[in-house]
Amino acid sequence: MKTGKKIVLEIPRQLVDRRLDVATFSLIQKKYPESQLSRNALSRLIKTGQITLNKTPARASHLVSLHDKINIFENDLSPAVPQLEPRDISLPVLYEDNFLIAIDKPAGIQTHPAGNIKRDTVAHFIAARYPQLKKVGADPLRPGIVHRLDRETSGVLVIAKTTQAFEELKKLFQNREIEKTYIALVYGHTPNLENIINKPLARQKGKLKRAIAKTEKALAKSHEALTMYRVINRYKDFDLLEVTPKTGRTHQIRVHLASIGHPVIGDKLYAFKHHRREEKLFPARQMLHAKRLQFELFGKKYDLQAPLPEDFLALLKKIDEIKKASYDNEALGNLL
Description:
Blueprint: E1 6-10, H1 20-31, H2 39-47, E2 52-53, E3 69-73, E4 93-96, E5 100-105, H3 122-129, E6 154-160, H4 163-174, E7 179-187, E8 194-198, E9 201-203, E10 210-212, H5 216-220, E11 226-234, E12 238-245, H6 252-259, H7 273-276, E13 288-297, E14 300-305, H8 310-323, H9 330-335
Parallel strand pairs: 6-13
Antiparallel strand pairs: 1-3, 2-3, 4-5, 5-6, 7-12, 7-13, 8-11, 9-10, 11-12, 13-14
Helix pairs in contact: 1-2
């Protein structure tokens, strides 16, 4: 257990109904302007229960009330800056210029440290290959990283090389000005060869999983989510889809496809039990690949693409031999 002097911050009237993380950060900035505690570090302290509300752990999103008391250790106001250990990890670089790097992230590697900090991540690769990027971005554990892919998702990942590029790329993602294209292999046949899924997403309390918001309470805390898909190839029991998410919610593609009864093959979080029983045919990871990113940065148009990885191609060939495809078009030929 952590020891040291505790500081108590009381919520004033002007911060009532603010999020706990926002209110805490505001009070620290006002009362301890010399503090080096970042927003990301503060959120981690709340999540691990080292910052409490009325002596009780609370979520960062909890709305505070008048005279609530926030407890924080004095030592945490100026924490040691976390160091990212360089590791000799080999990752394919698809493209690089003065502003950004595009890598082809393999399935099985996390984008940045989270939870198991001993696991190799893209961030460790950056620390070793591009040590000059350690101050790019707000979090030293995510140098230059402006977006992420799930650990079991492969494909294009963009890393900013300068602070200016980092801020501009963040804006492009936030403003939905980056066109993202994924390839997904799903169970069953979608009801349409082409369609849009428009269902708001909400986080399930205390869980990693996201869910379609249906109740009034869930809808109040939900976020808009929009996903377009079209069938590239149709096998006897599976569909190969090109998916274009128009919003960037956590697990969006996986939740949306599962919501229409066609989860991504190998998805251990959202696939249904009867699907998971059939997985002897499949690789151990979810068959979702970030194929393409298109955007304009500083007047230059980027079209960054990652080829389908070997395990994905091998599975398509295996399924085709066993199940036989019944639908094909030029788009599939462009993938192989």
